[in-house]
Design a protein that fits this description.
alpha+beta, 2 domains, 8 helices, globular, OSBP_sf
């Protein structure tokens, strides 16, 4: 019998079987602001091999790609997508069991990967000094990101809610090797659960690697107490995650693998393969009905680039916010040629700025020692952003 701390609802089979195929419906997000974009993605084809054959072994994040390969989001907004399943942090903060807290935090960390199997478009590289703010009060948290370095390209972010602080930085290193793409993000993440004054840094989860038909959706991870295994977190990283005791998982693992592969061939749909005595940790949200026509964006992702209302007053972000970027806005509106021209203009402007401004310093983050972890060379949010004094914001667009 499986159980979950919060919705979505779960249909279970109390039939004594070690492994069940259960119907677990994807929940509809509580906050939906858009169900489509102003224009669908272009159906024009791009000769990928012609573009990439000279890029073998190189970092793709530094290469200029045709705008047809982009989606109308900045990488800073992609970082904001980490927060789509922020309720998992709330579940962790409400649990008095430290093992359950670890399970929900691991599910939160992995949930950011959920759309990666179908969403293959590339976010725009942020310009130096570019920022992004996600601030919908109904979501219950704040999120701010800034491009703090250009070479290497480093993006820093900070998010906070009543129960947590979550911050880090990412250098998205992506290399092409002819028949595969290697993604080795140089990243640091810190999550602080305020009710317990707990600091969480890393989780290690096993992915099976690519199969013949693409990425293998099966995933598993072990919760340890010292070296002693306590729980196994398992599931389909694009659909659901569950947990059970280490002993039960080892006992039923072979049967679980068989049932998982059988369902994988049919298509998961609303079905999940669940071991006995499991907790359902996470279920992917329902997607917009025409998601495939709009870059496979989720409801949450469609929210991220909504235009800032005119005359936003004190609530308006600084003019460095990527929602003001003309190339991203034009791509969202389906104007490919103007978007490509704006993208070239902004990249040229950045190159000229970087030559003149060797002494660039981020406005909202400072490189230093993290008081929570003691680690050096961490980008720490200075909180000044929330004073909302943006008159001297740089003109980067």
């Amino acid at each position: 019998m499986s159980q979950r701390l919060e919705p979505p609802s779960v249909t279970t089979s109390d039939n004594g079987l070690d492994v069940n195929v259960e119907t677990i419906k994807s929940p509809i997000p509580a906050v939906i602001t858009r169900t489509t974009l102003p224009a669908p993605a272009s159906n024009q084809k791009v000769g990928i091999w012609g573009l990439l054959k000279h890029a073998v072994g190189k970092d793709l994040s530094r290469l200029t790609m045709p705008i047809l390969l982009n989606e109308p989001l900045s990488f800073l907004q992609r970082l904001g997508e980490y927060m789509e399943y922020h309720e998992l942090i709330t579940y962790a903060s409400k649990s008095s069991d430290p093992v359950k807290r670890i399970e929900y935090i691991t599910a939160f960390a992995m949930s950011a990967l959920a759309s990666g199997n179908v969403r293959l478009t590339k976010p725009f590289n942020p310009l130096l000094g570019e920022t992004y703010e996600l601030n919908h009060p109904e979501l219950g948290f704040e999120f701010v990101a800034e491009q703090v370095s250009h070479h290497p390209p480093i993006s820093a972010f900070f998010s906070q809610g009543p129960e947590f602080e979550f911050y880090g930085s990412v250098n998205p290193l992506v290399k092409f090797w002819g028949r595969s793409v290697e993604i080795v993000p140089q990243a640091s993440f810190t999550l602080i659960l305020k009710p317990y004054n707990e600091t969480h840094l890393n989780c290690n989860v096993k992915f099976n690697g690519p199969g013949r038909n693409g990425a293998d959706p099966m995933v598993e991870g072990v919760v340890l107490e010292g070296k002693k295994p306590l729980r196994v977190i398992y599931g389909n990283w694009t659909e659901y995650l569950a947990s059970t005791s280490y002993e039960i998982y080892e006992e039923v693992k072979n049967q679980y693998n068989k049932e998982f592969r059988k369902l994988e061939k049919k298509g998961f749909g609303e079905k999940c393969v669940i071991c006995r005595d499991s907790n359902i940790l996470w279920r992917v949200n329902k997607k917009p009905p025409n998601s495939k026509d709009y870059y496979y964006l989720t409801y949450f992702a469609m929210m991220l680039n909504e235009a800032v209302p005119e005359g936003g007053g004190d609530a308006a972000p600084p003019r460095t916010d990527c929602r003001y970027r003309p190339d991203i806005r034009l791509l969202e509106e389906g104007a490919l040629d103007p978007a490509a021209k704006e993208k070239d203009r902004l990249e040229n402007k950045q190159r000229s700025r970087s030559k003149m401004r060797k002494d660039f310093r981020p406005k909202w983050f400072k490189l230093g020692k993290d008081p929570a972890t003691g680690n050096d060379n961490v980008y720490i949010f200075n909180q000044a952003y929330f004073n909302r004094e943006f008159a001297d914001a740089d003109d980067i667009f």
